[in-house]
Amino acid sequence: RHGFSGFAAKLTNSQAKKLADLPGVVHVTPDSFYELATTRTWDYLGLSATSPKNLLNDTNMGEEVIIGIVDTGVWPESQVFNDNGMGPVPSQWKGDCESGEMFNSSHCNKKLIGAKYFISAFLAKYGSFNATESLDFISPRDYDGHGTHVATIAGGSVLPNISYKGLAGGTVRGGAPRARIAMYK
């Protein structure tokens, strides 16, 4: 009763103008794409360094916490995994940083303290893995960015003055920016 039909089409500017001028056409909108940045999330949630509850400071921004993530892997070159100002790896850490395709143990540091991949169950079930067809890496390296994004949200380092083409400028950081990350793929 209160809806209307719509569709998406690839049109030239003149075609879009002609379509917009037709009777019964409510609106023609050009498509646009914006990549979102999460530079204001933590302030919005009340988890800034100056929030009244002081949770972030009371927990020392997650220092000595190790966040284990099971996801698509990690892109270790991302600046959110820089270890500037971080002390030694916590003594309770007993994991390792596993080498593999396009990933070696030197990719780990005092921030990204562990990375491991598991493929034996896949090979046992399917017999082989063709990395060329799948685009994935036989290593902890992230092939599509999801694992890297999740790790950034959870414990990415503080990166000031970040924006996407001037939009949503601010500071990017994880919820526990001084925590350590261990990625499992």
UniProtKB/TrEMBL annotation:
Domain of life: Eukaryota
Protein's UniProt keywords contain Transmembrane: no
Keyword set, alphabetical order: Hydrolase, Protease, Signal
Molecular function terms from GO: serine-type endopeptidase activity
GO biological process: proteolysis
Pfam families in alphabetical order: Inhibitor_I9, Peptidase_S8
Cited SUPFAM superfamilies: Subtilisin-like
Annotated Peptidase S8/S53 domain residues: 62-185
Inhibitor I9 domain boundaries: 2-36
Key word Protease present: yes
UniProt similarity note: Belongs to the peptidase S8 family.
Protein name from the UniProt record: Subtilisin-like protease SBT3.3
